[in-house]
Amino acid sequence: MKYEKAQNILPEDVVELIQQYIDGGYLYIPRKCENRKAWGENSGIKNELKDRNVEIFNSYKKGSPIKILAEKYYLTEQTIRRIIREEKKKI
Question: Could you tell me the residue ranges of all domains in the chain?
Answer without folding.
Answer: 6-90
